[in-house]
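[recover] target loaded
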């Protein structure tokens, strides 16, 4: 059995269950391809992150980085858990507004927020705008003046620390498109501009060092660095950040080769480092914010597919093709992300072959899993790819004009549709035929 599954997830029929519901039944009821979330896993991860802050009596926010998976229902679950959210676009903010998510618990991120997006954020009184660059400080100043408003802000800095991970998803190194550079003095200049601005309330300092990180070291270095900056700002500008935000990036298990730390371990290391550094620097203990995305949405998600055609290349390999692929999960094609899968009606059966799990899209690179050991399967069997909850549906496309899948939430044996499957009519909804004169 895949190590990502527990015994409780196998029912009496020997089938995979998700949130207490037979995955075969979910596939039959909602059709495939289907994204399914076990909601109790989402809640659990948030609670585990929170527990260490609570136990240490540290002021905190666990702010879900919603780009991992942003829908109204997801925001409602985060709200039920009293979490915060990060948004990075007008569209994510709009979704949060539609979900009635409390705007005071929203952080607005992004390295090129437009004037319209900033206007929307200020009008809706989002909790904090995380400033990324000088252009944005100027734009926000104009927007605040126009609306005669004020806003809490944070400064995103690049701490000069690179986490050991894939370069496309690593952001903390100096040569990054995100945030104010530290060494060259940009961060200090930004601070002075913000402190001099009556409409901006400088709440704290932010860094995000990368994604899918398995080690504590990067977080400890970043946390220490942020406290040093805080101490520096205190000495030089008599300003002390209320909040130190160390971002997200906590690694999860996709395959048996991944050995992630527990959420508690990450928070424990971050809290200890900040406590110690603050004491060393004679600073008051700040509030500590974290921004997990993948680690909240990822492990809770399953993509269900129906097995279709098969190609056996004599003497070489076999391609087992499913009814989805890069349109609903671009990660394998985009950065060679790896997953594991099981057949939902025999997740425990011993494998008898190793196949490429291929998608149905017209790209040779549309391979969901390069090497998957499986028992014998036949067309019509349902395959569950595990741990697909982050950056899967949220990156889905209509490539080849395939409709995007439906999304279902399951908890305590009850399932509910939270995003409808796109229809063909949806696909042409925005198309305009040529006028006769054209
Ligand atoms: C993407 C992102 C996160 C979340 O990263 P994960 O790897 O999904 O945890 C957090 N903070 C910022 C600023 C981000 O851009």
């Amino acid at each position: 059995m895949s190590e990502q599954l527990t015994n409780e997830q196998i029912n009496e029929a020997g089938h995979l269950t998700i949130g207490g519901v037979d995955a075969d039944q979910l596939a039959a009821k909602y059709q495939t391809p289907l994204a399914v979330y076990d909601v109790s896993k989402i809640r659990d991860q948030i609670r585990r992150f929170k527990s260490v802050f609570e136990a240490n009596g540290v002021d905190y926010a666990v702010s879900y980085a919603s780009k991992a998976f942003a829908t109204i229902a997801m925001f409602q679950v985060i709200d039920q858990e009293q979490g915060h959210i990060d948004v990075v676009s007008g569209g994510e903010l709009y979704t949060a507004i539609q979900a009635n998510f409390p705007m005071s618990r929203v952080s607005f991120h992004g390295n090129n927020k437009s004037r319209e997006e900033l206007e929307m954020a200020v009008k809706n009184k989002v909790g904090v705008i995380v400033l990324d660059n000088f252009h944005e400080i100027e734009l926000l100043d104009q927007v605040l003046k126009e609306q005669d408003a004020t806003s809490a802000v944070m400064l995103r800095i690049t701490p000069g620390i690179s986490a050991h991970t894939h370069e496309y998803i690593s952001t903390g190194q100096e040569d990054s498109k995100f945030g104010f550079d530290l060494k060259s003095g940009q961060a200090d200049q930004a601070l002075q501009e913000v402190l001099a601005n009556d409409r901006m309330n400088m709440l704290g300092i932010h860094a995000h060092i990368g994604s899918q990180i398995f080690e504590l070291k990067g977080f400890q270095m970043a946390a220490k660095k942020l406290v040093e900056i805080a101490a520096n700002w205190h000495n030089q500008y008599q300003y002390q950040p209320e909040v130190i935000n160390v971002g997200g990036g906590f690694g999860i298990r996709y395959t048996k080769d991944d050995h992630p730390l527990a959420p508690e371990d990450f928070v424990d290391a971050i809290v200890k480092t900040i406590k110690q550094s603050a004491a060393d620097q004679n600073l008051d203990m700040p509030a500590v914010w974290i921004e997990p995305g993948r680690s909240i949405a990822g492990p809770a998600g399953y993509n269900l597919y129906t097995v279709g055609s098969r190609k056996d290349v004599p003497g070489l390999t076999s391609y087992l093709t499913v009814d989805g692929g890069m349109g609903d999960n671009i990660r394998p094609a985009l950065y060679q992300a790896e997953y594991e899968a099981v057949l939902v009606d025999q997740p425990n059966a011993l494998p008898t072959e190793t196949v490429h799990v291929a998608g149905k899209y017209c790209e040779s690179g549309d391979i969901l899993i390069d090497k998957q050991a499986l028992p014998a399967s036949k067309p019509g069997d349902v395959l569950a790819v595990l741990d697909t909850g982050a950056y899967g549906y949220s990156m889905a496309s209509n490539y080849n004009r395939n409709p995007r899948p439906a999304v279902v939430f399951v908890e305590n044996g009850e399932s509910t549709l939270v995003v409808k499957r796109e229809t063909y009519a949806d696909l042409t909804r925005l198309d305009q035929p040529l006028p006769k004169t054209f």
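[recover] notes: The chain has two domains: 7-31+300-427, 39-293.
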